[in-house]
Amino acid sequence: MKHLIYLLTVTTFLISCQEEKTTDLIIVNFEKQVEKNKSWEYDINYKMKYFSSDEDTLSYNSSVRLIKDKNDTIFGGSFWIKNDSIDRYYDLENIYIINHKNKKITKFFPHKGQDWAINGNTISGVLDSYFLKANRLSKYLKDSTTVASLTDTIFRDSKRNAIEFRFKDDLPIEKQRKIFFFNEDENLKSIIYSVKFQNEWQYNEWHFSNEKYNEISDSDLQLEFNKLIDIYEIEDYKEPDPKEMEPIANGIEAPEFEGFNFQLNDSISLKDYRNKYVLVDFWYKDCFPCIKAIASLNKIRTEYSKNDLAILGLNPFDNKEKDKEKLKEFIEINEMNYPTIFVDNEVTKAYNVRAYPTFYIIDNKGEIVYSKIGHTEKNEKEIDSLLNKWIK
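RESULT FIELD:
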């Protein structure tokens, strides 16, 4: 993604803006086109570099068909996404994940909360073409915290009008930028997004090609789907048993575990902390709720003696050699005053960790006396209240 960095930092690519073009005019014309078109088909190359990764974590080449429906409150219309051997179809009622290799179709119910089958998946990025949900760009222009600028540039060997939006810093989020590239007909051809978080950058790219307008309808998609259901097995998505997702119950003896103290470069085990309370936090550094919990854990560390309470940040993900230097910087930035303990997946299985962060409190007899998934201000107060009651 070197070209992306150059684009954001080197001004030699930029030529003075054409006098007859303005930011408002280009966006108005684009949104007028979006408004008058019922459907849009395109091929897309979608790339994403996540914060702590040195490489693109993914690159999708997909074919997308979108059909607007203003009455649809989930996505703003129906769609069909083709990506490798998996298709995703939304018919305004249900989401269908179509596995062509296995000839199986899994049905999800987005109006009952299962829209995460798309929205909770990275593939959702290929839908973010500013077509189904209109007027988003004009809303950026009206936002007083956003600064817009227009330039002409040569991008991907073609002349483009580039509109860059700079968003106000909301620490720890910094330098949030989004650049939209339009051709001379005000058609959207590419988008580049960047943001900085704790000295790490995330980039996203959208590149559109082979666009076609108003050539498909919902009946076309339905007809294609009907051909598949005659030869594919179809089943409803089955929610996992809620009990399987729950952490270990109170009163159970805490599973023994061993790990490696990253800061002290030494091995540890749960047995080392007998006769004191242990607050265990399962976390990793690219988990935003985990990061939010660090401040509260730091605060707890200062309020209770190490003779009475140990706090252990159990981390199963950041122990690769290439990640350790970044983890060291992360710990310094967040001023973590408790140790990071590398553990393997057997430990997370033993503690039934299904989401991050997951917290446990183990008492001075080795029994679990508290467990909770996720971090909220309420949970923070709950943990502090319990520790205050138990540790005199």
